[in-house]
Amino acid sequence: MAPKVILTRPLDPTLLEGGALLDRAEQDGKIQLVRWTQDKPVDRQWLLDELRKGGTEGLVCMHNGEKIDDELLDAAGPSLKVIATMSAGYDHVDTAALKKRGVRLGSTPDALTAATADVGAMLVLMASRRAGESVRAVIDGKWPSMPWNPLLLCGQSLKGSTVGILGFGKIGQLTLKRLLGFDVSRCLYSTSRPGVALDPSKDYFNTLATASFHGVEIRPAESYDELARECDFLVTCCPLTPSTQGIIGASFLAKMKPTAYLVNTARGPVVDSDALLAALREKRLAGAGLDVVTGEPNIGADHPLVLEPSCVVLPHIGSATVQARSGMSRDAVKNCLAGVGVEGFEWANEVPLVLEHRKLLLTIQPAVGQYIKESDTNLATDVAIARSKRFLRMMAQPFEQSTKSLWGIEEIMDKQRGLDPDRSADLNEDDIAALQAEADAAAAHDAMADEEAALLATEQNGGEDVAMQQYDPEDDPYQEIDDAALASMALPDLPQPLLGFQGLPPPPPGMQLPMQMDEGLPIPPPQFNFGEDELPIPPKQYGEDELPQPPPFL
Ligand SMILES: O=CC(=O)O
């Protein structure tokens, strides 16, 4: 029997390729299609009832207002194979619930990149040239009483400005490329790992080369603070995840220049609306352009951000070109048909449902394995161990950073110190000095550990100073390590504590591993154990909404 597929919004086959594909698959008897036929969001009860009838294998759904959660997945039961959302973002989908049930997820990130980047650039221009305010003045008939004067409706120029892009995936990069034509002079970008440069394999549009061709300096911001401080235009293009929710909040906005503009083409909740409103009203920020707002689509004419003259609000039209929507519908339908096994269809984009904790562990595992091997089998060559330790530390760096945001180490530390979670504002000089002292102690401790290792090595070498053993790059196995080599490194069985995420194995005698995280902030002792296929759940002692969640991978 042909697989049953549910479609939650009509897709006009004359304009939307996905609609035509689905119609044909239905006519050819390749699927049984159940459609929601009204041109408005699917009624949740209708959908649940339809799913409870049983046998549904695929669901083509939309982003707006269609939550894919436990209740819906339970209603669908075990026949469900694929959720295909006609959107790039999938923050409406409970990915853990899908993973638990073995349901696959498809999304449509590529088809809308250009359209969304256009709107990002448009909002930069609209906000900085006060287009919303200007159009409103004309519509309200105020032009005749608004004689020209030198500063009437003046904004800030893009020429020579610094653009900040938060979330430097395809949309972020293409938004920047659009803006290069306006003679901006510098771009700072940030992914979920501030300070980490764009992986060239993720430079989808030759962005780095094009920027330098335009004479535009482009580099990762060292921190979110630097991003906030330096940019004249900040465009948010990141996915909405627990760690990006509210990332543009009061403390971020407080660091921005009063002449700067914020543009949000990501998701409403990435920006704290109240904090933004306060910054705009108090003229701590020059203006904002929002394609997305928390609470959409229920944003009435009386919404304070709509009423705020320096803010221009669009009704989430980032992907609203016929071409983008047609491509999105095509990709969503392809994902669905491939997911239910209709011959001749391939996934356009499957979202990997590997959860973030696991990804991090997988990244660091090979290096840890290598380190253990060195320590176990090669105790005599302390120089090699020291080098492997260094290498491990290098590998661990993103892990440390992500772990910090994963568990909100800083917040936890602040709570231990009795500080407000919105910490930076609350750190007094004593706190800063204490933090600095901790960081210095950690660094000294580290240096001591290095010295101890060298001493131990000297002893084991019958008194011959190991420093005398010349470091020969030719002999250094880590010189050659690249991603491929790393992936192929034999990984010894990891000791149970490591699988249980209990930290690194004990260091060899006389050597300390750098367990102190940078800035002296230790990883809190793990409060949980998990099996190989399970995921660690962050400790919850601070209550769910206080604890930051896993970092996104942009
Ligand atoms: O916002 C639009 C999308 O995620 O497709």
Automatic annotation (TrEMBL):
Keyword Metal-binding part of the UniProt annotation: no
Chain ranges of the D-isomer specific 2-hydroxyacid dehydrogenase NAD-binding domain: 122-318
CDD domains: GDH
Keywords assigned: Oxidoreductase
Annotated Gene Ontology cellular component terms: cytosol
Positions of transmembrane segments: none
Region (Disordered): 509-554
D-isomer specific 2-hydroxyacid dehydrogenase catalytic domain residues: 43-338
GO MF entries: glyoxylate reductase (NADPH) activity; hydroxypyruvate reductase [NAD(P)H] activity; NAD binding
This protein's name: Glyoxylate reductase
Taxonomic classification: Eukaryota, Fungi, Dikarya, Basidiomycota, Pucciniomycotina
